[in-house]
Amino acid sequence: MTNLWIEGGSLSGKSERLVQQFCEWAETDFAKQTNPQAASQKVLVLAVDSQQRHNLSDRLIIATHGRYPVTAITPLSFFRDEVRLFWTLLVKKLDLKAQFPLLLRVENEQELANQRWSDRLKTRTLQMEGISRDRLVRRLLDLFLLAAYGGRDITDIPAILNAGIETNIANLEAGLEIGLEQWQEIGAALQEWREYCWERGLLTYGIITDLFAHHLLPTPQYQRQLKQRFAYVIVDRADEMPAIACDLCRFLLENGAQGMFTFNPDGSARLGLGANPSYWQTLKSECKIVELLPAQHTLGAEIAKSVIEIVSQPILQFIEPSPQVYSIESVSRAKLFRNVAETIAEAISSGEINANEIAIIAPGLDNIANYAIAEILRKKEVRVSPLNDQRPLSYSAQVRSLLTLITLVYPNLGKLVSRDRIAEMLLVLTNAIDPVRAGMLADYCFAPDITNPRLLAAETYNQWNRIGYEATHAYENLREWIEQQSSKDAPLLFIDRAIQAFFKPRKLSYEHTSTLQSLIETAQHYWQLGYRLDQQDANILENFIQLIRQGTVTANPYFPDAPQDSVVIATIFQYRMARLSHRWQFWLDASSDLWLRGGAAALFGAPFFLKEWNGELWTTENQNEVDMQRLQKLLRDLLDRTGDRLYLCHSELSTNGQIQNGVLIPLIEISTIKT
């Protein structure tokens, strides 16, 4: 049997070729087995994220008419499932406490690590110059995950960072050992964190990947199971996968499994976020290589080469403007948003293009840009679909009102409630109280108290007749409902009861329903974690309210599938990972320096955990070279996803009022100005 390496740029047909090969496997092998469906379950399919997993799984099922079902999975999900499945093996090997493992969400991981390292952070033995406490905690947890992705133990992290990062001038003057001491403190903190999680059966993605890489995959008993379970392995977009997933695939290939891999040389959007494309290419020598021709009928096929040359090596002589590349210019960013939106609306209204054939792409999409462009287009009756737009649960008025409601039922939460929060709650939970009356009721009928804040009768306000009958009736019904509740009830039960009482009768939109669902799921997980850590309900409840209000827990308020007649707006990273393509692309903030970073800032220390890192000091020249290589791949990738027109949208001034002089300026200078 021959392994297959399918290589090609965007839209070159890699996935189609992969599906064809799977159908050949089905005909030549699965169909001849006694139980064909069981045979197809011996296929391990790895996809880069949940959306691509879903898409690939559907394509394989449709191509084989559902006769040979396979389960596609992301690498992290596979590691998680394997660690859970073989948890008893890990318990025995590492002498852990026999308890069922509990997966931590990102916000829980951040909160617990912050608490665990509080002494180190307060005494500043754990610090990085110019980095806030929360960012430092997140950076350390990311280092853990990067090390696990690269198959490195966390005990190696101090030496890796010391070798790769240049010590600052102050440390040079005081002695080089200070830099190493800083990294050793980080290593000690991470080891302390790992032990803490192991003792309590807590799993983070860093812990999971570390366990899989160092304690599960090397174990002979687990290896025997792997060889029996998987006879085939399919990896879609290996260029976006971590090195440890490559080690898994190499083990399967060495033990008789047949492999198929797709690779985009212009991909690697996740480089700096855990992907190790160069390491994956070491598998090419063990495969039959299929190189696909570049996609035709795209803008990239016509101008990608010249665009790369212009951006990489700007030249001074005159170049004829490209008829397919336009620019939209303005002095201020606010004016730019309006110009972009008006250009799109005019093109759609004239019938020149449909809304679903347009994408707005930005290196960093801040809330101002997202909101401004979307609002202008909506006023012109053009629908907009932000891609993977996640907002904190605290942005929801319904969620904020439920949290305020909790403080009026459970004791000792008075410091978490205020008159403004009460007014908002009255407005949201009732249909009959307007903002003015809600404010008056909060001012005159709310009794703040640290132990037992409460709502007083409407007659407490000496001019209660100004409230009106309907508002008074609604207020008294709410107050009566609150008085009927018991603080002895489980908070999860109370949240569900409040949703049933105040929101279910209204038949909320998908956006609001999914947000409330996320709140319930977050609460369930938070209480489960609290009980695992032997915390009391009162402490869990107070911490939960503060966690939600901090804005660290997010939910997606939009429909899972974008409307067919809408303009897509996304960051570069989101757009590339979603593998979208459009006739027209609008590159927002084209004069920004953020384009050189690819629209996704690399994690701290990411280059040092790549397999190909040679252990030498990482210099500015190294970083500049990596940035330029990433930019070239990014430009080729986006142009291959463009049909026939590109708009470079830029303003002279950035958000902070500084003159912009980004790497795409030479390209803007040869574009046709859109008037």
What does it look like?
This protein is of the alpha/beta class and 675 residues long. It is 50% helix and 11% strand. It has 28 helices and 19 strands. The strands form 5 sheets. It has a 7-stranded parallel beta sheet with strand order 11-16-10-17-18-9-19, sandwiched between helices. Strands 3-2-6-7-1-8 form a 6-stranded parallel beta sheet, with helices on both faces. A two-stranded parallel ribbon has the order 4-5. The chain is globular, with a radius of gyration of 28 Å. About 1% of the residues have low confidence.
List keywords for this structure.
7-stranded parallel sheet; Rossmann fold; 19 strands; single chain; 50% helix; 28 helices; alpha/beta; 6-stranded parallel sheet; 675 residues
